[in-house]
Amino acid sequence: MVEDSKVDLVVVGAGWYGLMTAKTYRDVNPSANVVILDVSPTIGGVWAKHHLYPGLKTNNMLGTYEYSDFPMSGVNSFGVKPGEHIPGDVVHSYLKKFAQTFGIYDQCRFGEKLETATKIISDKDEERGWLLAIQRGDASYTLRTRRLVMATGLHSTPFLPKFVGAADSNMDIIHCSDLLQHSEKLFANSKNVAVFGGTKSAWDAAYTFASKGIHVDMIIRESGRGPCWMSPPYVTPLKKWLEKLVSTRFLTWLSPCVWGDADGFGGIRGLLHGTAAGRKLVNGFWGVLGNDVITSNEYDKHPETAKLKPWVDAFWVATGLSILNYPSNFFDFVKEGKITVHVAEISKLSQKSIHLTSTKEGDSIITVDALLCATGFQFIPSVKFLSENGEPIDASTVGLPHHADSDNDLMDEIDKEILTRFPRLKDQPTLNPALKPLRDINGAKELNRPYVLYRFMVPPAFINDRSIGFAGSLQSICTPLIAQSQALWLTAYFGQKLKVNTDDEAKVKREAILHARFGKWRCPGGSGSLWPDFVFDSIPYVDLLLADLGLSGRRKGGMIKECFEPYGTGDYLGLVEEWKRTIDEGRTSVVMV
């Protein structure tokens, strides 16, 4: 193993968050030596080339899935027209061109996997950091870095379940993220495929095969969370663009949010969520939103489409609310029998067959050519964090999900605070009584503690070390906006130029737990119990980060526009330069911690 030279920053992950973090850090520190590591052979993260099977599109339409300083139009046009959902290969090309344009593509090292990160302890700030062990093909090397940003997000390593009888099934068992490598053969030779899962990825795969005349058996676990919410792009009786609805400040007030007061409208939020009349208005909005989706999709007008009706109200699911972005009507395939929906468990596999068991439908066997698994990802980074003596650093210390046997007094206190501020959350939904996790992380106990990171980025135990941060360890449909804000916040944090005082470690820890714990109560029908999962709360989160930077979140130039005009990437154009001017002019206090 050969030791490489020391660098200023290593970013792990070359997707939306990693690329913006590297660019922003270089914008502020032009002479910094930055390295971007990614295990994939190409740029893009989940939009890397090997993930993009034919027909795959984003939920986003043109204008909402781009960085502020690099619009997907004009000189950077990729042929996508207004009102069109952006194809996956366009996102890949866009991110590659972005990296090349801003001089960070050459800093990317593809096909390299970070195996371990060992903490380096020193009294001198410039000598602290991490020693990284990196695998590159059959070779390995080490790299010292003062700062480390884990930008692998929640969707980097596919999770593939283990099935009884898989070895003798004589069928392809493929994770949907690997479908491209098998698509040509499957499209040409398959008569019937099974798709396992009820998430948006499952719907995408099912539509792709059904549109090519290949029958699909879509299997949704009886012991799962049910099919995801699938909304038309335009919702409510007023037919508002959903992506912009969630970034309209007035409508963000209708979502209870523990960090929501960062937008400066705490009084209005208090009336909406702290009074009976306000909660009635909030419930009415969510009722209209959910009913509009149910009505538009006509679930109850056919016995097969009824199986795709969500099991939990829209209020509770966060990013489990997705968008129908297909060229034709998905539900027509179901009504015509081209997609057959099963609510059942896979008991075992045998020769070209899947054995299903269901308390409602009984046992059955379906014959298939392939089993496609839309079963999510290992949402915890695969890297092992080690102390200076080589011992593993506990997951809770690094702020990662883990198992704890019981709540402590601080948890109880925080739960009481959340439910006092937001009485609506006391009335939790009735989840599937048969619910059980599909995943088994190395045989460990069930994970019952979420990511706990200050501002969803920094482990409280490392807050004063300023050597590590996480970017993108959350879910939101406002990816570029949050990526930009997190990148600037981390850059300022590493450079000791935040306005917020992080000296009080106990206060930092409590606030991190408060924000993390809120997800358990707010999004029990989604993934809030394990990681930050929010939709209508993205703009107030950006407001929170901007306040820490000494910048204003109100960027519309008038109260009417501020409240009722949707926020978009253009509203944050020039954010880094704006922040740099405040530093030069001395308006942001520098907190040495």
Q: Per CATH, which architecture of the largest domain?
A: 3-Layer(bba) Sandwich
Residues in helix, %: 25-40%
CATH homologous superfamily descriptor of the largest domain: FAD/NAD(P)-binding domain
List low-confidence stretches: 588-593
Would you give the CATH topology of the largest domain? Answer: FAD/NAD(P)-binding domain
The description of the largest β-sheet is: 9 strands, mixed
CATH class of the largest domain: Alpha Beta
What is the overall silhouette?
Answer: globular
Count of runs of 4 or more consecutive helical residues: 16
Residue fraction in strands: 15-25%
Look at the structure and give the mean pLDDT: 93
Structure class: alpha/beta
Number of self-contained structural domains: 2
Number of strands: 25
Organism: Terfezia boudieri ATCC MYA-4762
GO molecular function, one term: oxidoreductase activity
InterPro entries: FAD/NAD-bd_sf, FMO-like
Protein name: FAD/NAD(P)-binding domain-containing protein
Record keyword descriptors for this entry.
single chain, 593 residues, alpha/beta, FAD/NAD(P)-binding domain, 2 domains, nine-stranded mixed β-sheet, five-stranded parallel β-sheet, 16 helices, 25 strands, 29% helix, 19% strand, globular, disordered C terminus, FAD, FAD/NAD(P)-binding domain-containing protein, FMO-like, FAD/NAD-bd_sf
What this model shows, in words?
The protein has 593 residues and is α/β, with parallel strands linked by helices. The chain has 2 domains: 2-157 and 378-403 and 447-502 and 536-584, FAD/NAD(P)-binding domain (3-Layer(bba) Sandwich); 159-234 and 261-377, FAD/NAD(P)-binding domain, CATH 3.50.50. Helices cover 29% and strands 19% of the residues. The protein contains 16 helices and 25 strands. The two termini are 35 Å apart. The model is unreliable at 588-593 (pLDDT under 50).
